[in-house]
Design brief:
Blueprint (H helix, E strand, L loop, with lengths): L36 H16 L1 H11 L3 E5 L6 E3 L6 H25 L7 H29 L11 E4 L11 H17 L10
Antiparallel strand pairs: 1-2, 1-3
């Protein structure tokens, strides 16, 4: 006698059990698309607001950057820096660079917190706003510094005057947009969601 398996002989192993629960395949969720039209107005707001940071950036730099003490060497207004004072040229550039990096980091993080608008459109706007802030910071910062250290009367030969700090490299204005892009990109990679968490539900 053969072994009994507990199943009727007329049921084949290929026939599914009528009491089993069928497992349906999970529906594929459509990949989220880049939203452009709905993000245009918020992107303009991000760009303009980020660009306005150039004014406090310029004012703060004009207060922190040290001037060069110079000696008047002739009656034609010739100037010669005192010993070690020429190092302030690097100090002025470095101080602005650190302030611009901080501004770019702030722009990148605050823009990322706009959860419903995350995406490349707002990122481009934030980078553009940081570029505008960097340009305003370099131009207005020098103007603020020139006004602060303005020489009201003609100095005599041998006098020591304070020369307003200057930003001698225009490339430093790229520090803010580079930091904005880096901060936003790192937060995007850390998030790891296809829609970047735009859906709040």
């Amino acid at each position: 006698m053969g072994e009994t398996t507990g199943k009727p002989a007329h049921l084949s192993s290929s026939v599914p059990d009528p009491w089993s629960v069928p497992v349906l395949p999970k529906p594929r969720r459509p990949h989220p698309k880049v939203v452009v039209k709905a993000d245009l107005l918020p992107a303009v707001s991000v760009l303009s607001t980020a660009g306005l940071l150039g004014f406090p950036l310029a004012w703060l730099w004009s207060r922190l950057a040290p001037p060069q003490r110079m000696r008047v060497i002739n009656d034609r207004g010739g100037l010669a820096p005192l010993e070690l004072e020429s190092w302030h040229r690097f100090d002025d550039l470095a101080i602005y660079g650190f302030l611009a990096l901080g501004a770019g980091l702030l722009i990148g993080i605050v823009t990322w917190l706009l959860r419903e608008r995350r995406g490349p459109v707002v990122l481009i706007a934030a980078t553009g706003g940081a570029t505008l802030a960097g340009w305003l910071g370099t131009t207005m910062g020098v103007s603020f510094a020139n006004g602060r250290y303005e020489i009201t009367s003609a100095p005599a030969v041998g006098d020591i005057i304070a020369k307003a700090p200057q930003i001698e490299s225009p490339w430093i204005m790229l520090a803010a947009p580079l930091m904005t892009t880096l901060a936003y990109t790192l937060l995007t990679a850390w998030n790891g969601r296809e829609d970047l968490g735009r859906r709040l539900g």
